[in-house]
Target: Putative alanine dehydrogenase
Amino acid sequence: MKKYSTLILDKKTIEKLVDIRKSIIAIERAFYEYGKNRVQMPPKIYLHLGRFSGDFRAMPVYADKFNKCALKWVNVHPKNYKSGLPAVMAIIILNDPRNGFPLCVMDGTYATALRTAAAGAVAAKYLARPESALVSLIGSGRQARMQLSGLYEIFPIKKVKIWSPDMVSVNNFIKEMKSLKVGLLPSKTAKSCVENSDIVVTTTPSSKPLIKRQWLKKGVHINAMGADAKGKQELDPWILKSAKVVVDNWQQAVHSGEINMAFAKGIIHKRDIYADIGEIVFKSKGARADKNEITVFDSTGLAIQDLAIADLIYKSAIRRKAGKWFKFF
Model:
């Protein structure tokens, strides 16, 4: 480490430094700190750019346990594929809280994918039935792959059903995920995909409900990961009305999470939300009450997750002498 130099980490370097197992441990620790109220974390800040069909989000955070501040600056521009750019790109800055010095600037895109998958795994660990063996994926993109990898670390998964409007994407998913050595089955409809499943994971950008209440069996757990902006939703609002709903953060969830449309329509109210994930992990509130209860985790993504994963990456890079040093000041 060079005095007052900043470590620069790109995606390829980061991919060699951390894995999903270590990420799950880091995110569970982060949720515990969040539940203990030892985190300074303003709600996600949005900069909407309708003219360019995109937006930016700023996510600042400080936590005593990590002894660092972090800021993630991330965009969402769905039309970027036309120019060969990712729809989502992110940068994370880690700072020393004592003097503000930028310790590290890293790619936040892969880090975000990791921490999101780890959050889903942690939520399911507390809310799904421990014997869950059948997983259904609504969506077959990058995050669906990451979510399955996270769940695979926690549960005795035997079979996975996958549905997406794009069957080419589903077939590619199955080819790429064969190394997990579980049954991977394409589904023709969303209904056939989720029927009889123990865990359902949604990772789409849908603005219309894809899953109906009557398709779900008793005791299912749902990780609703796709809704990340106002107007998006993947679940029938009546699922939320009848389930035990856990959000990551109330303010973010009501603005842009899975619950935003049901709340806007008056189908659910704040009293219908059971807890946030910090309360569950810290155990100030109980998790699953019985085997027949339907549970939902509404994930919008928290800055404390970014801090936890960035701290993990940074420490690994220091130990392994990875990355490049740059003197800004």
User: Anything to note?
Assistant: The mean pLDDT is 95. The first helix runs from residue 11 to 15. The CA atoms of residues 155 and 241 lie 27 Å apart. The longest strand covers residues 54-63.
